[in-house]
Each structure stands twice: as structure tokens, then as C-alpha cells.
Amino acid sequence: MNYNRTYNFSAGPATMPEPVLEEIRDEMMNYRGSGMCVMEMSHRSPVYQQIIDEAEQDLRDLMHIPDNYKVLFIQGGATLQFAMIPMNLMKNGVACYVETGAWSKKAIAEARKYGSVHVAASSKDRNFCYVPDCSDLDIPENADYVYICENETIHGVTWNQLPNVKGHVLVSDQSSMFLSRPCNVSDYGLIYAGVQKNVGPAGMVVAIIREDLIREDLDPRTPIYMSYKTHADNGSMYNTPNCWAIYCCGKVFKYLKSIGGLKEMEKRNMDKAKVMYDFLDSSKMFTGTVDKKCRSLMNIPFVTGDKELDAKVVAAAKAAGYDNLKGHKSVGGLRASVYNAMPREGVAALVEFLKKFEAENS
Ligand SMILES: *Cc1c(COP(=O)(O)O)cnc(C)c1O
Question: Which of 10, 81, 82, 176 has most ligand 1 atoms within 8 Å of its beta carbon, as the pocket-test mutant?
Fold first, then answer.
């Protein structure tokens, strides 16, 4: 069916798979004979319990999550995790962070409110266009964890090799690359992702946490909502969860399983990103801003080198049906976010458009 949709290159909230949106549409007025929409349902009802249980199980299947990890659905976005992580994981009050762009910077600033933060490596010297060598980090002996942002959404930088954490707990913000490729969960103590980038609607985070990291001896002033234990002990339903986001994400998990899981997704993502990077590498007008070996498969920033021309491309692209290509102000230029749900045809069409623009404007 033709819905007259645009190719949406937004960094988030972002495009979702059309078959999922169609299923949601079909179930909108009456969810499977329940007589109501999922938005109208009690989260304590058996029909909703099945929705959340299946969502968790499908995610466990997709990522092969070991049994000693809890899967939590928490509100407050990825931003709340910037505080929740130090509040829950800092036992010694010390943590080690790697600074690779805007989102790790924000996490660092928040963590500093709770303890001593050691920034062991940074790529600030070149405006975060690469991931520093983290094979031999200077990690304080008593650091409670090592924190990375595995894909910097704004700077378009991704980790292709995890840091050597030397026996410490690894914590990763996977918001903008969650489920884009296979992930060995047991390499991490905690993985979290705001779902509005690569999965579903805004307003929720998935946190995958190793059970032994869930503590009860937190500062007694810790808000009850901000303790992982609260969520773990109550199946993510201590209070009313983001029922709608859980439902929509569950559908995306099933959809990813149906197309062949994360290996297949990675293959498609590599193929898709290559279309864009090959173009950038051959273009005389446009250049990618990130070192080749750290280029993100999900967020692709690029520039013409001329601010006015950048703005002209963004406007012309929007008019031609390619929306949300304006780069973040800290990098400038343009950014194409090509998450899981962006079809290869969308990227190929964008590249054709950019080629034509270049031919007509140089
Ligand atoms: C978007 C984003 C965040 C912040 O997400 P919110 O849900 O808006 O709080 C954090 N980290 C990364 C990597 C992101 O892309």
C-alpha cells in the first residue's frame, strides 16, 4: 500500500518497520478480541502480561541473553540512565569513562554528581571523529565499572572492538545501535538503550543487567524508581510501565526474529551503509567526517565544507522526499541516520539524489 511516506533519516525518534506499523494499525481498535486498544488496557491484566512476557522472551531469543541477566523496561529515556548507573553501580564511588562524543560527555557530567569519574581516554582532540585505542587503559584499581557509548549518535562514531576492561564491569550505552548487529551479552555487566533510535516509540529504555550488579544497599535517599532492584523484583511493573512502547518494541523484536535475527540485520546494515560510504568516498562535494575504521553503520555525518551549501542540500532533499538530514549543530553539515528500519532502497535513492545535486551544483 502507498501511504505517501517520506524516507525519514531522523536520528530519533526514527523510522520503524512498515510491517510493524501496519500490524499496530490493525490492532488499534480491538487488540485480539480484548475489545480495547493496548493503550487502554490495565497493565495488570492477563492480556497485557502476555504482551510484556513475549516482548522480553523475544528479546532474549534475539540477543541470546544468558539467564543470569535481567531484562528491564524503564522510563526516563537513556538520560535517566546517566544517573541511575552511578547511583546503582558505584560501590566504591569510582568509575572510569571513555569520552567519544556528545552522549558519553553527558553521561560523564551526570556521573560526576555521584562520585569520582576518571576519564581514561578521549577523542576530543579531533572533535570526536574516532574511537581512541582502549587496549591498555589506565583504569583505577577500585573503579566500579568502565563506561562507553558504543555508538555516538551525533558524531557518527562506533566501537568495533570493546575496550580491554581488565576485569572490571563494562557498561555500554547502545541506544543508537541496539539490535543492529549480534552482541555477546556476557562481555558486559550492563547494556542499555533508549528504544526510540533503533526500535520503537520514545519514552523507554531497555536495560540488560547482570544479576549480581543489582544491589539493595543503595543510598536510602535514592528514589525507588531509580533502583534497578525495584524494576527487577517487579517484572518491570513496580508502577505503570510504558505499556505502549513495550507493545510496539515487542512487535519489532518479533519482526527482527522473522527476518533472520541479528546476523541478518547486520548483513543488511553493512550493505546499506556501504552504499552511502562508497558514495561519500567518491564524491568531490561531500565528505564523511569520521575515520574509516570507526564509521557508524547507523549514523552517517557528512559535510560539503560550506554551511550555506549544506543548508541548500538539506532543503532540496526534504523537498525531494528525504527528510531530517540536517546534521547536529556540534558537527554541522548533514547526517543520514540509517537505522535497522531504513530500507536499502531509501539509501540508494538518497545517494542518487545527492549525485544529481552534486552534478547540478558544481
Ligand atoms: C538519544 C541518545 C541518548 C538520550 O536518549 P533520551 O532517551 O532522549 O534520554 C543517550 N545516548 C545515546 C547514544 C543516544 O543516541
Answer: 176
Angle at 232 between CA 226 and CA 233, to 5 degrees: 105
* Residues at CB less than 6 angstroms from ligand 1: 12, 77-79, 103, 149, 153, 173, 175-176, 194, 197
The single-letter DSSP state of residue 301 is E
Among the listed residues 70, 197, 251, 326, the single catalytic one is 197
Give the residue whose CA is nearest to atom 13 of ligand 1.
175
pTM of the model: 0.98
Residue among 58, 144, 173, 310 flagged as catalytic: 173
Measured between alpha carbons, how far is 53 from 235 in angstroms, rounded to an integer? Answer: 9
Tell me which residue has cell 475489545: 35
Exposed/middle/buried for 128, CB within 10 Å: 0-12, 13-18, 19+? buried
**Measured in angstroms, how far is the CA atom of residue 276 from the centroid of ligand 1?**
24
197 is catalytic: yes
Whose Cα sits closest to atom 8 in ligand 1? 77
Question: What integer pLDDT is reported at residue 2 of this predicted model?
Answer: 83
Return averaged pLDDT per consecutive 10 residues of the chain, 362 residues in all.
92 97 98 98 98 98 98 98 98 98 98 98 97 98 98 98 98 98 98 98 98 96 97 98 98 98 98 98 97 98 96 96 94 96 98 98 89
- What string of DSSP letters covers 205-258? EEEEEEGGG--S---TTS-GGG-HHHHHHTTT-SS---HHHHHHHHHHHHHHHH
Instruction: Calculate ∠ Cα 236-239-242, nearest 5°.
Output: 65
Looking at the CA of residue 205, tell me the nearest atom of ligand 1.
7
Place of cell 583505577: 140
Report the nearest atom of ligand 1 relative to the CA of 176: 15
| Helix, strand, coil % over all residues of the chain, rounded to 5 | 40, 15, 45
CA dist., res. 204 & res. 207, Å (int): 10
- Among 331, 296, 278, residue whose Cα is nearest residue 197: 296
